């Protein structure tokens, strides 16, 4: 297959690129390198460009295509930042994606896999969330992703662009080679911050110990990036036989609290992980756990990284090499 990975020099995108390359697909990466890193794109062809430049997107589709599918990871994805700078989020995540869709229409491309998020559920009313739960995002990041899900439904109906939106819960871990992994600056995600604390690189803060959960800290469903890549790959096949716009949750269905992640990381690293208690972080729901049975059933998704210690260990192997 010939695949365009938009945002292929970022964290999840780079694992996708590696996954496709390991299976022999031809991959072109389109990335503005604003938060991504050139080396993460590996041996794929890299076109440096921005989805906010409609001409650049159309040019890559014409020059490197036709593509069997586009996988679109380009996005701003920090909840807190989206509250203080919503324009950045609506511009990048909404306008940028509309540019991608318009370029697809102009060039006759008909298949898109889109990165969505558990943030579309807002503060869910049930402990384990399936796709029938209402989408009610509570911050601009979640709203920007939800808006595009709705756009995708309309584009499927009107323009015959088939799409799969994958709602990731908490992406975590790194490629087993330790060569690529999560590399954000600043880093806001829990597992890399816990591991930085294990290395003595930065102090760890636990945001809130007064949530209505058994130990008072927030519960999340950590899903390995390699399993996310597998789901995108399956989604491309699915689009071949399923026109329309589809959404799927991607998570393991197991919730871990912040304190449980710290304890697991102590076991994995053998190191002390000191932390300070800090106030709640704005916009954090107490618990987000996926029911991903639709993805298993419809896509044939079989997550392999179901043990949270293995997920943390893969991130640890990457971090220790840096
Ligand atoms: N946390 C800490 N200390 C840290 C970092 C995080 O205590 O240094 C806590 C957070 O408060 C939260 C949990 O660890 O309770 C997980 O936080 P992350 O930042 O790792 O992940 P989020 O759950 O906030 O974010 C994820 C995705 C987002 C998505 C969001 C939906 O990364 O893209 O879920 O709420 F929007």
Fold blueprint:
Layout: E1 2-6, H1 11-22, E2 26-31, E3 45-48, H2 54-64, E4 69-72, H3 79-84, H4 86-107, E5 111-117, H5 140-159, E6 162-168, E7 170-172, H6 190-198, E8 204-207, E9 219-220, E10 222-224, H7 225-241, E11 245-250, E12 256-257, H8 258-269, E13 275-278, E14 287-288, H9 293-299, H10 308-321
Parallel strand pairs: 1-2, 1-4, 2-3, 4-5, 5-6, 6-11, 7-10, 8-13, 9-14
Antiparallel strand pairs: 9-12
Helix pairs in contact: 1-7, 2-4, 4-5, 6-8, 6-10, 8-10
Bound molecules: uridine-5'-diphosphate-4-deoxy-4-fluoro-alpha-D-galactose (UFG).
Kindly describe this structure.
The chain is globular. Helix 4 packs parallel to helix 5. It has 2 domains: 200 residues, NAD(P)-binding Rossmann-like Domain (Rossmann fold), CATH 3.40.50; 100 residues, UDP-galactose 4-epimerase, domain 1, CATH 3.90.25. By secondary structure, it is α/β, with parallel strands linked by helices. The two termini are 33 Å apart. The chain is built from 10 helices and 14 strands. The site of uridine-5'-diphosphate-4-deoxy-4-fluoro-alpha-D-galactose (UFG) has 22 residues, from helix 6 and strand 8. The site of uridine-5'-diphosphate-4-deoxy-4-fluoro-alpha-D-galactose has 22 residues, from helix 6 and strand 8.
Question: What are the salient characteristics of this protein?
Answer:
322 residues; 2 domains; alpha/beta; 7-stranded parallel sheet; Rossmann fold; 40% helix; globular; 3-stranded mixed sheet; binds uridine-5'-diphosphate-4-deoxy-4-fluoro-alpha-D-galactose
């Amino acid at each position: 297959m010939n695949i365009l990975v938009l945002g292929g020099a970022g964290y999840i995108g780079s694992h996708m690129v590696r996954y496709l390359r390991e299976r022999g697909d031809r991959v072109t990466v389109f990335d503005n390198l604003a938060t991504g890193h050139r080396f993460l794109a590996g041996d794929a062809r890299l076109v440096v460009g921005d989805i906010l430049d409609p001409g650049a997107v159309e040019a890559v589709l014409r020059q490197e295509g036709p593509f069997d599918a586009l996988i679109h990871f380009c996005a701003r994805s920090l909840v807190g930042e989206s509250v203080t700078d919503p324009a950045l989020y609506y511009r990048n995540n909404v306008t940028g994606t509309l540019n991608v869709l318009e370029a697809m229409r102009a060039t006759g491309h008909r298949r898109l896999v889109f990165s969505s998020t558990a943030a579309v559920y807002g503060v869910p009313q049930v402990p384990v969330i399936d796709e029938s739960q209402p989408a009610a995002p509570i911050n601009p990041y979640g709203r920007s992703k939800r808006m595009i899900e709705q756009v995708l439904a309309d584009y499927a109906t009107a323009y015959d662009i088939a799409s799969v939106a994958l709602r990731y819960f908490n992406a975590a871990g790194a490629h087993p080679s330790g060569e690529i992994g999560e590399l954000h600056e600043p880093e806001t995600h829990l597992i890399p911050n816990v591991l930085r604390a294990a290395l003595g690189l930065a102090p760890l803060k636990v945001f809130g110990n007064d949530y209505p959960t058994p130990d008072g800290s927030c519960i999340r469903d950590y899903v390995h990036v390699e399993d996310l890549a597998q789901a995108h790959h399956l989604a491309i096949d699915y689009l071949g036989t399923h026109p329309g716009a589809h959404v799927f949750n991607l998570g393991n269905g197991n919730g871990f609290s912040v304190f449980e992640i710290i304890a697991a990381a102590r076991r994995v690293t053998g190191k002390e992980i000191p932390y300070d208690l800090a106030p709640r972080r704005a916009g954090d729901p107490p618990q987000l756990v996926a029911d991903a049975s639709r993805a298993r059933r419809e896509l044939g998704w079989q997550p392999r990284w179901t043990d949270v210690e293995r997920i943390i260990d893969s991130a640890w192997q990457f971090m220790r090499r840096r």
